[in-house]
Amino acid sequence: MTTTALDFARRNQPRFLEGLKTLLRIPSVSTDPDHREDVRRAAEHIAAELTHIGLENVHLIETTGTSPTAHPLVYADWLHAPDAPTVLFYGHYDVQPPDPLDEWLSPPFEPTERDGNLYARGAVDDKGQMFMHIKAVESLFAAHGSLPLNVRFLIEGEEEVGGEGIAAYVATKPANLAADFCIVSDTSMFAPGLPTLCIGLRGMIYTEIEVRSARVDLHSGYGGAAPNSFNALAHILAKIKDESGRILIPGILDTVQPPAEDELRSWRSLPFNEDEFRESVLGCQAIVGDARFSVFERLWAQPTFDVHGIPGGFTGVGAKTVIPAKATAKASMRLAPNMTAADTFRRFREYVQQICPLGVSVEVRLIHSAEPSLIPVDNPWIRASASAMTEVWGRETVFVRTGGSIPIVGDLQRHLSLPCVMMGFGLADDNLHAPNEKFSIHNFHLGIESILRFLERASTLRPDRHA
Amino acid sequence: MTTTALDFARRNQPRFLEGLKTLLRIPSVSTDPDHREDVRRAAEHIAAELTHIGLENVHLIETTGTSPTAHPLVYADWLHAPDAPTVLFYGHYDVQPPDPLDEWLSPPFEPTERDGNLYARGAVDDKGQMFMHIKAVESLFAAHGSLPLNVRFLIEGEEEVGGEGIAAYVATKPANLAADFCIVSDTSMFAPGLPTLCIGLRGMIYTEIEVRSARVDLHSGYGGAAPNSFNALAHILAKIKDESGRILIPGILDTVQPPAEDELRSWRSLPFNEDEFRESVLGCQAIVGDARFSVFERLWAQPTFDVHGIPGGFTGVGAKTVIPAKATAKASMRLAPNMTAADTFRRFREYVQQICPLGVSVEVRLIHSAEPSLIPVDNPWIRASASAMTEVWGRETVFVRTGGSIPIVGDLQRHLSLPCVMMGFGLADDNLHAPNEKFSIHNFHLGIESILRFLERASTLRPDRHA
User: For residue B280, how far is the Cα from the chain centroid?
Assistant: First the structure.
């Protein structure tokens, strides 16, 4: 059976790639109210794809997330293999904003092939990877007229804005999503050509820290006596994480679950050149962070704190000598396994209030959050996926974690007890969330084959819903 | 003679106010390239006014300041009183940007009267105060058909963007500006109804501190190992001035000239309620700053450091989990008497380079600068002005300094040995550089009378060009 479906997938590579380009041309920037209609257009386009390949019960599910960033879920299923397991495909069709626009070598929403890569916003995160799932199922269907296992798709449009809608849906309608395992392709390979399963994710709290120093902006001639919201904010930010990279919020580090010794050992065996990573992935002068931990621990098993931007004040061309009355930092913490978003945010807010400088007031708001997650290596779906990947790529599959967050993975674990098999085919230099995002076209095609083979293997496993 | 000119000024109050409104309707925002034509329109409007009131040799002087914020000077003179002294009137016709627009109660460029005040961007800084000079001279001319002293006007359009053009002109063409004293009305009264001469100004260096952490923006999943330009910038800013308000740049405080004991004593006698100042002027919870110094010393006689804004990063609606490759703080220092812009900037830049955190690089740019200045109280023009103000306002004139900077004052002292008589009629709650800028209409009219009477008294003094 595999051969036929694989043949179909291989013969249709050019068409699959063109299909992806069509999807990438829709600027579905979920955070930007101006792109609201585009986001919906992307949802409808995917629904049409799912109908076209033979799935049933295809429909959009309106979410109740915070307007104006509420965008529909796309649902589809095919449930005609009663003794076979059920897979839930998760992906997202929304993308990050493309700014800064002037740093793109080709327009972000005009997919462009260069050097074996497809460049576009969303190429790898996550349209390209989510599209692999659809094309794998299409290939199985086209080859056999049916599927060897039951299939559900749940594709969201709010991943880049916190995923409130899918979180509420998963929490309130678990019966509609009953499955044995989930496939998520929103992660990267550890190295080009090295099949990789991600078994751990950091969580996150995304916050706004708003400092107010006066009723109105003041002329900076009052400087020296008037409090300045920006200076005060700088003092607050500098006290949350010190220059050595250590989080200074009391109690935060005590809650972190350290990685098991054998996991640490396996990380040490990964092909990793710190200087190469610094130069080609981070593109920076020096790797920073808490020197008590290895780079992998800093990225995968420790919390951190990053500032993303500070709106307010004078940011125009030229000079304005103003003491801004208000400064707001957009800042987030990544959470290590065993931390919880609620407890972390409570400690974060209390600490910020406590270190607030004289003369200003501070308000801390939670914009969204995600729980960290960690999956056992010996889970049967993980093992089946690892074997499938090893077969397609010709190398042993490695197990890693990622420093990013996929909130839905924690939610699916909590509400549906679903193990998530994170088969990712991105590469470290794919520039996700940055200008010139890309996806390797080779990985796109082998990713489809990997998913095909995994579905084959998975279809022969007995579902064990009470495991 | 005074009576006649005063009568003219009083009879023409409504017309003078309408004339000011017409000028305020021109959005001459010098820092904004989109308002380039408006700035020129304001210059031409003033040139027409100066011609209309009887001045000669009226013309625009193109400046060579950094495009696109180069705007012309307006020059005019009347030099037919050979034995009388010559006054140089200085003012500026450019204004600060009006943002944040949504905090204005009436549109910034539609002058609106409320409660005896005229609300508009530029009402007090400096169109309204500069216009008083024109109207005072117009009144003298209209009453007598000539002037009792020689007059030059030099009005610039780059004050809010650093005044490069006028600085270059003053440095290179001093002969064109030969005079005995200068009148500047760009300061405030110490209290409503209290005639005030400002004899000291702080200088300034306006800088941009640009931190680079990586070649491109990174996904914040790399947080913990990747340097973050914003976090690093916060550490730099927090180390320039500590939370107690003390500047931490080595050597900076050693260069400050402390005020003389009798000046300190006179400051202590000024009508000043610290809590009232905090509440109604600063509009903040607490006065901050270096507790070793009084509030007046902090504002007038000590340097400070204020951050004005931090462009870059993600500042849009919603959430973007990015580690920005670049963060730029717009930040300035105010300089106390005896400090120099060049020495301060050198120390500032060296210190910032020295405290730059691991993993990032920093570049410090000087956007513009102004020297501090201090004028002796017993200067004859200062004494004549004080007497004129006392006569008009019915109270003893007080001598203060200001925490702001008027770069041209230092330049006129240095290149032309001109003492600047700073007769300001603004009030502390005029919201200059902020939304809802205003000018007291009463002060506008008494300001014209004060200048009239001062010109009268000054015309009887013997010019002493070698004093």
Answer: 21
**pLDDT at residue number A266:** 80
Query: What's the rounded mean pLDDT across residues B88-110?
Result: 95
Cα-Cα-Cα-Cα torsion A169, A174, A179, A185, nearest 10 degrees, comes to 20
Which whole-number Å values give the CA distances from B314 to A239, B212, B218, B293, B321, in the listed order?
A: 21, 15, 12, 39, 9
3-state secondary structure of A87: strand
**Strand A196-201 relative to strand A398-402, pairing:** parallel
CA distance A466 to chain B (A): 33
3 state SS for A201-221: ECEEEEEEEEEECCCCCEEHH
CATH architecture for segment(s) B2-201+372-459: 3-Layer(aba) Sandwich (3.40)
Residues of chain A found within 8 Å of residue B221, distances taken between Cβ atoms: 202, 299, 334, 402-405
In chain B, which residues fall in CATH 3.30.70.360?
A: 205-259+275-370
Cβ within 8 Å, pair A314-B295: no
- A304: β partners: A334
- Inter-chain CB proximity B319 and A206 less than 8 Å: yes
Rg (CA), chain B: 23
Q: Once rounded to an integer, what is the mean pLDDT over residues A311-326? A: 88
B347: amino acid identity, one letter: R
- The pTM is what? 0.80
> What is the C-alpha separation between A334 and A350, in angstroms, rounded?
18
Question: Which residues make beta-bridge pairs with B272?
Answer: none
CA distance B44 to chain A (A): 23
What number of residues does chain B have? 467
Element (H, E) at B328: strand B326-335
Least CA distance to B34: which residue of chain A?
Answer: A317
**CA triple B333-B337-B338, angle to 5 deg:** 100
Contact in structure between A53 and A153 (CB atoms under 8 Å): no
Please give the order of strands across the beta sheet that includes B438-440: B112-114, B117-119, B438-440
The two tokens of residue A379 are 């889970």
Pick the CATH number of A203-261+274-370 from 3.30.160.20, 3.40.47.10, 3.30.70.1150, 3.30.70.360: 3.30.70.360
Question: Where are any strands of DSSP class E within A304-358?
Answer: 304-313, 322-323, 326-335
Q: How far is CA B330 from the centre of its chain?
A: 18
Number of Cβ atoms within 10 Å of the Cβ of B445: 19
Is B319's CB within 8 Å of A285's CB?
no
Long-range contact list for B55-61, CB < 8 A, 24+ apart? B55/B137, B55/B151, B55/B153, B61/B169
Contact A162 B290 (CB under 8 A): no
Measured between alpha carbons, how far is A120 from A111 in angstroms, rounded to an integer? 5
For residue A326, list chain B residues with Cβ-Cβ distance below 8 A: none
Average pLDDT, integer, range A445-467: 86
List pLDDT tens digits, range A52-83: 999 999 999 999 755 678 999 999 999 999 99
Token code pair at residue B333: 């220092």
Q: What is the DSSP letter of B110?
A: S
Cβ <8 Å between B220 and A305: no
Bond into A100 cis (ω within 30): yes
Interchain contact, A287 vs B226, CB within 8 Å: yes
Residue closest to A235 by CA, chosen among A359, A141, A132: A359
- Domain B205-259+275-370: state its class: alpha beta
Summarised one tens digit per residue, pLDDT across range B235-276 is 999 999 999 999 999 999 998 989 988 788 889 889 999 999
Ranges in chain A annotated CATH 3.30.70.360: 203-261+274-370
Give residues with Cβ within 8 angstroms of A273, minimum separation 6.
none
What residue ranges of chain B are covered by domains with CATH 3.40.630.10? Answer: 2-201+372-459
**Predicted confidence band at B432 (pLDDT cuts at 50, 70, 90)?**
confident
Q: CA–CA distance from A41 to each of A164, A165, A293, B9, B312 (Å)?
A: 20, 18, 45, 67, 30
